[in-house]
Design brief:
single chain; alpha/beta
Length: 328
C-alpha cells in the first residue's frame, strides 16, 4: 500500500496529511458536509443514520453516473479526504464505491484512495478547507449548498458573515443574500433544495419587500411563503411577476394586489392589469408632454403655417385626432 506525505495549507497553517488506500467498508459519511446536509436534512432531520445517508446518496443520479465513470477509469481521479475514518470530502465517491462493491467485483473496489487528515484538525479548519474547494475551487457547490455551508460555518467558527465572505472571495452582498435566503427557508420549514430559486427571488425582489411594508394589511410576504411551500407557483420567475403586481402604482394597484392575495385573479391577469394601467399612464404622460410642446411652440407654428411640410403634418395629426375622438 503506497503512502505519500501531503502538506496542505488551511487558514494559513500547514497541515501534514497522508495519501494512502483505505478500506471502503471502514469509512463513514460526514453528515455535516454541506452537500450531504442539504440533501439529507429535509428528509431525515438533523441526525440521519449512516444507512439513511447511504440510501439517499445512492439514489441520486449523479452518484449513479459517478459509479459508471469510476468503473470506466478503473478508480478515482481525485482522492477523498478523511479524518478518523469520516469522509469529509468525497461522500458521493464513497457512495459510488459502495455501489461498485455491492454490484461489481468486491476485490477490485474494496479500497479507495484517500488523503488522511490528522485527528487534531479543527471543525473550523475542516469547513475552511471545504469552502476553498467548493466555493472558490474547481468543483463549486450549488447556491443552496453554498448557503448551507455559510450558515454552518458561521455556527462552527462564530465568525461574522462578512469575514467568511472575504476569506472565500465572495462579495459580502451575495453572502448576506445567501444567508437570508437559507434562513427564510428554515423559518418557513421548507428546506427543500429544489425550491432555493423561489426563496432567492423573493429575497432579491426589492419591490416585494417595499410593498410588504407599505401594505401590511395584505401580509404579502407571508402569502408568498405559503404559496411557495404549497407549490402553487409553476417556477421561480413567477415571483418576479408578483413583484410587478405589488410594486405597481396607480388606481388599479390595490385591485391587482387584492386579486392576487385573495386568488380572485390569476397571476397573469393581475400582471396584465397593472401593465395595461402602466402603459396607459405612460401614454397619457406622452400626450401631455406633446400638448405642452405644442403650446410652447404656438407662436412659431402660426408664423410658419404656410410651410408645406409643416402644414401637411398638422393636417395629418388633425385627421388622426378626429378619428381617435370620433368627431366630425
Amino acid at each position: 500500500m503506497e503512502q505519500t506525505k501531503k502538506f496542505l495549507r488551511i487558514e494559513g497553517v500547514v497541515v501534514e496529511a497522508l495519501e494512502t488506500d483505505l478500506k471502503v467498508i471502514d469509512l463513514l459519511y460526514y453528515p455535516d458536509n454541506p452537500r450531504i446536509h442539504s440533501i439529507i436534512e429535509s428528509e431525515y432531520g438533523e441526525n440521519p443514520t449512516q444507512e439513511q445517508i447511504e440510501k439517499k446518496m445512492q439514489s441520486l443520479e449523479h452518484v449513479k453516473e459517478l459509479k459508471n465513470s469510476i468503473r470506466v477509469n478503473g478508480g478515482l481521479i481525485e482522492p477523498i479526504f478523511v479524518k478518523d475514518n469520516v469522509v469529509l470530502e468525497g461522500n458521493s465517491r464513497l457512495a459510488a464505491y459502495r455501489l461498485l462493491l455491492k454490484d461489481e467485483d468486491a476485490i477490485n473496489w474494496a479500497s479507495i484512495r484517500a488523503i488522511v487528515l490528522p485527528s487534531s484538525i479543527s471543525a473550523d479548519q475542516i469547513f475552511s478547507m471545504l469552502g476553498t474547494m467548493h466555493i472558490i475551487g474547481k468543483t463549486p457547490w450549488s447556491p443552496f449548498e453554498q448557503a448551507a455551508y455559510l450558515q454552518r460555518r458561521m455556527t462552527t467558527s462564530r465568525k461574522k458573515i462578512d469575514a467568511i465572505a472575504d476569506e472565500l472571495g465572495l462579495t459580502r452582498a451575495s453572502a448576506h443574500k445567501y444567508i437570508a435566503t437559507y434562513e427564510l427557508m428554515v423559518n418557513n420549514d421548507d428546506l427543500v433544495r429544489d425550491k432555493w430559486s423561489y426563496y432567492f427571488e423573493l429575497v432579491k425582489n426589492g419591490a416585494i419587500q417595499k410593498a410588504n411594508e407599505n401594505y401590511p394589511q395584505f401580509s404579502i410576504i407571508e402569502t408568498i411563503l405559503e404559496r411557495i411551500k404549497d407549490e402553487k407557483f409553476t417556477d421561480a420567475k413567477e415571483i418576479r411577476k408578483v413583484g410587478k403586481i405589488v410594486g405597481a402604482e396607480g388606481e388599479v394597484a390595490d385591485e391587482a394586489i387584492q386579486g392576487f392575495i385573495n386568488e380572485t385573479m390569476s397571476l397573469d391577469d393581475a400582471v396584465e392589469l397593472v401593465e395595461s394601467d402602466s402603459k396607459l399612464a405612460n401614454l397619457t404622460a406622452k400626450v401631455k408632454n406633446f400638448n405642452i410642446t405644442i403650446a410652447n411652440e404656438n407662436m412659431s407654428l402660426r408664423q410658419n403655417i404656410t410651410d408645406v411640410g409643416l402644414s401637411t403634418e398638422l393636417k395629418k395629426l388633425f385627421a388622426q385626432l378626429k378619428t381617435l375622438l370620433s368627431v366630425e
